[in-house]
Each structure stands twice: as structure tokens, then as C-alpha cells.
Design goal:
heterodimer, A: mainly alpha, MetI-like fold, 14 helices, 70% helix, flat, disordered N terminus, B: alpha/beta, D-Maltodextrin-Binding Protein, domain 2, 4-stranded mixed β-sheet, globular
Chain lengths: 319, 421
């Protein structure tokens, strides 16, 4: 979207701008705390991170980190060095998180949409059910994923209990080590994430004019046609925003992996966040960790820009 | 302009308040301590000690219990920012690493009774490049705990060698069921290396060469040690679920009376007393390998941060904690560790019961080399160890792969040792 540019060139313009600032200070004062917060919590640390990523900031230099030697792109070269097992693991972690995102976003969306369609019907106690649906989402991550960790435990976990009692397996499976780890985390994440999709889609569904649906029904449109040609265009804008948010959040996923699998989730479930945290904070290689974070930020920026350019989320059906 | 006046007033008020608090505040130090004892007893002890210390010196001690999982990054952050604490407990293996950062204050050990006052392995752990950067507080080592009732049921005696662990274990699983013989930690344990290192040493191996320039743990001794560990699950002595355990989960399996053997430390005795006081258990020295017995010397030291504004007060607090009666009380009644000062160790308590076993074991215990890059060594070994266990669970574990994984770890360690300045 192109914002109209206000011509403020020259002394007159500057004067006008100043008049605007001092003449009505209230709006600026009101946004000042939020702006200050963003600068302190987001902007400065990001700049800091970029600064650190060009320096050899490790165990020998953290006590005097301002003086850490500048090494140019050294950290980046190391992070992306595919001849080094750590470089390979970093790539693997990115592949893992993409796989994780594809599955959890897709299933989370499908479940969320299905439930939203159901909740959009009129029935007794609808408001109560709508509230209850949000429970997984509002539960703190640490609590929810700790419980899921118990559920997936090999000896005492409920999953194995069910599978054993149904006779589907003969001996308990180990879920939290090896190849099954990603599956376990995905199940937990979908459970935790779908209510948010449901909430947004339900809001979208409520913007669908009921008359339009009734007209379509009178004109002989079947259920699928009504969904495809009336409902879908109305929830498409929400869908686009929701998917973008989900991509960004999923790419940074940390809590579910850390809580369920520990700080070293193993090669099958290593994700960028767990890997960066280990390199930076466990191995005290802040420079290397920062450079990997910058790589991730750049990747996400590219994804977000392409997404915004091609799909243009935010436009409503009336546009 | 009223707004400007308002802002001015606020600024003045804040300034006055901060000046006032700076004057009013008594000398205060912040002390970070790990959960060395169950909170129920620990907090009371710390409160009482802080009160006593304040009455004596006028210095207020603000203590905070920091979990082992967070402590590393909290201390690293304190070093980077110069804020957080004045004194902290650190694990023995951490001391040289944090010393290398330059964020710890050098200690004159003479001030604390001289080098001869401490257990040697623990004092060594406070050093970095020949200088002391901390004071030993308490020592620990891991021994083999066994369940007397389960051993009696299987009519076996405590094993004396690592091979005997397997034969004794098989007798127990035959009698009591699969997975009942041994509780071991798996991929969730950050301290996995301690369990492997003692078998490595017992087999005559070592971690790095004498010059500390090259990894040597990928020797036959190291490979055998790791295979021995995996064989515990392979032979059904340990439950497959152990692969996902952390050390406390393994400990709990023993403490609850479900499993007959576990390598545990003296601090676990506190857990037994709390959780399952009726447990009929014994403690024996770690089994012999081809070279003999070996054990790991660990424990905790007390360090003063270079950024602390109250270093004298911080040192006074350390001296207070190291007083014989304080240290004996703390180690005997709370942490169930072993004191790191020799005079406290003279206390007859440590020559009685299971403590005698720990004392003997500690006499030949080995400390890890005091290196700045120790963390890299630990992470390299643990991460490959986890891969071995993960391979076993996935069903693609091959005994010959252990060597490949340890070689990979050795390569990483060699690179890390090159960075050691």
C-alpha cells in the first residue's frame, strides 16, 4: 500500500511539522511508552545482535564484550560451513523446522477451520463452547508441553498405555528419543495451536453476510458451492494473515522443543532456535549464535516480503 | 508549562529516592546458590545463616536459589553485564571456564587457610593458568547404589567389576523382570559424561593427553566404556525408556525401589530420606575396570565476581560458610555432600556408614582438566553419546559406529583445544 507522502520540505514544512508535534502533544505522549518499549526491547537488541555477529565474542571476550575483535563475516562462514558437522546440523535444523511448520500449520488450519465452521452454527451453549475451545491456546507453554512430555513418556505415558491396551504395539515405544521425537512435538503443537486459527477464522466467518448465504441457498447452491463462492472469499484475508503469522511463529518455535525434548533435542528434532541457544548460551559462542540468528532473520524477511508481495494479505473482500 | 513542571518534579523525586535508598541501604551482597538441598530445609538454613552473618558483620546477604539448568546462563549473563550477584556457587568444571572470561575475581587462597586446607582435586578445579579464581566449598563423587532387598531376592552380591555388573544384573532381571537391574540416564541428561568418564578411566583411558592439546578419549577404552553403557539397555538390564531420562529420572527409579542399581551421588541420600525412607540400600565403590577403580571428583566452589562492589563482604561471607561447624552442618544435614576442607572432613561423621565409602572413593577421584574450553569437550562428548543412544532406540545402533561417533567428538575437541589460549 502506498502511503500519501506529505510534502514537508523547506522551512515552512518543518515549522508545520513542529507545530503539529508541539501543538498537539497528547497523541505523541500516548504512543511514547509503546515506542520506547519497542526501541528498548526490540530495536536496540536487534542492532546489538547484528553488531555482535561480526565479532569474535566468546568465552574469552564476554567480560569485555565491547572490545571483542572484529572478524567480519567469520561467524557467518562458520555457521554456514557445510564441511563442519555443526554447519550441517544448522541446515538440518532449518529443514526440520520447515517440515514441522508445513505439517503443524496445515493441520492446525484444517482443524481450526472445521471447528470454526461448526461453532458458527446456532446451537445452545455456543458461547460457552467457543470459550472452552480456547483453553489449549491460553494454557502456558511450559505447562502444556510438560504435560505432553508426560503423555509421551515411554514407561508411564498415556500414549503407550493406549496403544498397548488396544494391542497395537507389543512393547512401549520410545517417543522422546530418535525419529519419533518430531511426531510427538507436532502432535502437541497442533493441539496447542489450532484454537488460535479457529478464533481468527470464526471472526472471519462472522463477517459473512447471512443474506448472501441465504440467497445462494435459494439460488440452488449446494453446501460446497456456498462455502467456495461465498464464505471462502470472506475468510481469505484472515487466512492469509493467519498463515503469515503462523509461518513466522513456527519458524521461531522453541518452547515445545525445549520443554519436551530438553536443550539438545537430537538431530531429528533440532530446530534453529534450540541450536542457536545452545551455541550462544551453553557453549558461550555469542558471536556465532548471533550470526545464525541474523541469517534466520534475513530468511524470514525474504519469506515475509515474498508472501506480502504475492498474496497481499490485509485486503478485504470489498477491496 | 505545567507538563514540563510535572516532568521535572518526577525526575527530582526519582533522583531523591535513589539517593535516599543508597544512603539508607546497609551493605548488602547477593549470593547465588544452587538447589543443594530440598527447598524445605534449604531456605530455612540460608535464612538463619544470613541472619547470623548480618548480626556479626552488619552485612546483609540476599540469597537466591538458582536451578542448575539456569545457573550457567545466569552466571554468564552476570559476567557479561557486571550485574546480578556478588558471590556465586559454581560447579567445579565451570570454575576454569568462567575464570577464562576474566569475569571472576582472583582469590588469594592463603586468606582462606592456604592450599593445604582443601582437598586437592577440588582446589585444582578453582585454578586457571596456575591462578586461583574461587574457593572449594564441597566435594562429591558418584558411587554405585544398590537395593539390598532386590539383591537378596536374586541371591547376588554387589558387583566388583563392570563385567560383574552385567552378570549380576542378568540374575536380577531373570528374577525380577526386564529393566529392573539398572537405572541409567539418557539423552535428557546434561551430566551424561560423568557416567561414561568413570568407565573410561577404569579401563585405563583418559580424556585429553598430558599436554592438553589433543583428545585421546576415542581410544579403545573410551569405545568400550560407551559400548558397556549401551549394553545395559541392550541386555535388558535397564529399561529402554532410560534412553529419554535425565539423571533425576534415573535416580527416582532407584529411589522408588523399582530398580536395583544406579550410579548416584551423596546428595541423593537426602532424596531417599525424603521420598522413600524405608528403602533398604547400600553404597559400594564404583566397579573395577581393566585398570582398576576410578571415580569422578566433582562438587562446587564459591566465586566472587570481578564486577562486585562489595568484594570484602563477599569474601567474608565465603569464610563464614567455610567455618568448620557451618560446613559440617551444611554438608551433613542439608546437601549430603562432602566438605571440601580437610578439617571439616576430619569430623568423625565422615568415617561412618556409607560416608566411609564416599570418602574412600573420593581419595582416588579424578577431576576433569581445568580448561577454558571444557564446555566444548563436555558438549562434544555428550552430543555424540546422545546420538549413540538415539541410534539404539531407532534400531540402527551398531557397536562399530561408537568409534565413528567418538572420533567425531574428538575432532571437535581438538579444534576446541586449539582455541584454548
Amino acid at each position: 500500500m502506498e502511503a500519501p507522502v506529505r510534502p514537508v520540505a523547506g522551512a515552512a514544512g518543518r515549522k508545520k511539522a513542529r507545530a503539529l508535534l508541539w501543538g498537539k502533544p497528547l497523541p505523541y505522549l500516548l504512543i511514547a511508552p509503546a515506542l520506547l518499549g519497542t526501541v528498548l526491547v526490540h530495536v536496540i537488541p536487534i542492532i546489538w545482535g547484528v553488531f555482535i555477529s561480526f565479532r569474535d565474542l566468546d568465552i574469552y571476550t564476554i567480560a569485555n564484550w565491547r572490545g571483542a575483535p572484529f572478524i567480519g563475516l567469520g561467524n557467518y562462514a562458520q555457521a554456514l560451513n557445510l564441511a563442519d558437522p555443526d554447519g550441517v546440523l544448522f541446515m538440518r535444523s532449518i529443514a526440520n523446522v520447515v517440515y514441522y511448520g508445513l505439517v503443524t500449520i496445515t493441520l492446525g488450519y484444517v482443524i481450526g477451520l472445521g471447528v470454526a465452521l461448526l461453532l458458527n452454527q446456532r446451537f445452545l451453549g455456543r458461547t460457552l463452547v467457543r470459550g472452552l475451545v480456547l483453553l489449549p491456546y491460553i494454557m502456558p507453554d511450559s505447562v502444556a508441553y510438560s504435560v505432553w512430555r508426560f503423555i509421551f513418556q515411554a514407561r508411564v505415558g498415556m500414549v503407550n498405555g493406549f496403544l498397548l491396551s488396544l494391542g497395537l504395539i507389543k512393547e512401549p515405544l520410545v517417543w522422546l528419543v530418535g525419529t519419533r521425537t518430531m511426531f510427538a512435538v507436532m502432535v502437541a503443537s497442533i493441539w496447542k495451536g489450532w484454537p488460535f486459527a479457529c478464533l481468527l477464522l470464526l471472526a472471519g466467518l462472522q463477517s459473512v453476510p447471512r443474506e448472501l448465504l441465504e440467497c445462494a441457498a435459494i439460488d440452488g447452491a449446494n453446501w460446497w458451492q456456498r462455502f467456495r463462492y461465498v464464505t471462502w472469499p470472506h475468510i481469505l484475508p484472515v487466512t492469509k494473515t493467519l498463515i503469515l503469522l503462523s509461518i513466522l511463529w513456527n519458524f521461531n518455535a522453541y518452547n515445545q522443543f525445549r520443554v519436551m525434548l530438553g536443550d539438545d533435542p537430537g538431530v531429528y528434532a533440532e530446530v534453529p532456535s534450540t541450536f542457536v541457544v545452545r551455541q550462544a548460551f551453553d557453549n558461550l559462542r555469542y558471536g556465532l549464535g548471533a550470526s545464525m540468528s541474523v541469517v534466520l532473520v534475513l530468511m524470514m524477511t525474504v519469506v515475509a516480503v515474498i508472501y506480502l508481495k504475492t498474496l497481499k494479505p490485509g485486503k478485504s473482500v470489498e477491496d | 508549562m505545567t507538563l514540563r513542571r510535572g516532568v521535572l518534579l518526577c525526575v527530582l523525586l526519582v533522583a531523591m529516592l535513589s539517593v535516599a535508598s543508597a544512603y539508607a541501604a546497609p551493605r548488602q551482597i547477593t549470593f547465588w546458590v544452587m538447589p543443594n538441598a530440598p527447598d524445605e530445609t534449604h531456605t530455612g538454613w540460608l535464612d538463619k545463616a544470613a541472619q547470623e552473618f548480618e548480626a556479626e558483620t552488619g552485612i546483609k546477604v540476599k540469597w537466591e536459589i538458582v536451578g542448575w539448568g539456569d545457573a550457567w546462563s545466569r552466571i554468564a549473563a552476570a559476567i557479561a553485564t557486571g550485574e546480578g550477584a556478588d558471590v556465586s556457587q559454581v560447579g567445579t568444571t565451570w570454575n576454569p571456564q568462567f575464570a577464562a572470561t576474566g569475569g571472576l575475581e582472583k582469590t588469594d587462597i592463603a586468606e582462606f587457610g592456604g592450599a593445604s586446607a582443601f582437598m586437592k582435586a577440588n582446589l585444582d578445579s578453582t585454578t586457571y593458568k596456575g591462578q586461583n579464581y574461587g574457593v572449594p566449598w564441597f566435594a562429591e563423587t558418584r558411587c554405585l547404589f544398590y537395593n539390598k532387598d532386590m539383591f537378596a531376592a536374586a541371591k547376588v552380591n554387589p558387583p566388583q567389576t563392570y563385567d560383574e555388573v552385567i552378570t549380576v544384573g542378568k540374575a536380577i532381571t531373570k528374577q525380577l523382570g526386564q529393566g529392573k537391574a539398572f537405572a541409567m540416564a539418557g539423552t535428557n541428561a546434561w551430566d551424561l559424561i560423568h557416567n561414561w568418564a568413570i568407565v573410561l578411566w577404569a579401563n585405563g583411558g583418559d580424556l585429553v593427553d598430558a599436554a592438553q592439546k589433543k583428545a585421546v578419549f576415542n581410544s579403545e577404552a573410551g569405545v568400550q566404556a560407551m559400548r558397556w553403557y549401551v549394553s545395559l539397555v541392550e541386555t535388558g538390564l535397564a529399561d529402554k525408556a532410560c534412553a529419554e531420562y535425565n539423571q533425576p529420572q534415573a535416580d527416582a527409579a532407584f529411589i522408588n525401589g523399582n530398580v536395583a542399581m544406579c550410579f548416584m551421588g551423596p546428595w541423593n541420600i537426602a532424596n531417599i530420606e525424603q521420598e522413600n525412607p524405608g528403602l533398604n540400600y547400600g553404597v559400594v565403590e564404583p566397579p573395577k575396570g581393566s585398570r582398576g577403580r576410578a571415580s569422578f571428583s566433582g562438587g562446587s566452589n564459591l566465586v566472587v565476581f570481578k564486577a562486585s562492589k562489595n568484594k570484602d563482604a563477599a569474601r567474608a561471607w565465603i569464610k563464614f560458610l567455610l567455618r568448620k561447624e557451618k560446613l559440617v552442618d551444611y554438608t551433613q544435614n542439608l546437601s549430603h555432600m562432602l566438605p571440601a576442607t580437610l578439617d571439616a572432613f576430619e569430623d568423625p561423621y565422615y568415617s561412618s556408614g556409607v560416608w566411609k565409602t564416599f570418602k574412600t572413593t573420593l581419595s582416588y577421584a579424578t577431576a576433569y582438566p581445568p580448561l577454558a574450553v571444557w564446555g566444548d569437550i563436555e558438549n562434544a562428548v555428550v552430543s555424540e553419546f546422545k546420538k549413540v543412544l538415539s541410534d539404539y532406540i531407532v534400531g540402527k545402533y551398531k557397536a562399530e559406529d561408537v568409534k565413528i561417533y567418538l572420533d567425531a567428538a574428538a575432532k571437535k575437541v581438538d579444534e576446541a583445544l586449539k582455541r584454548e589460549k
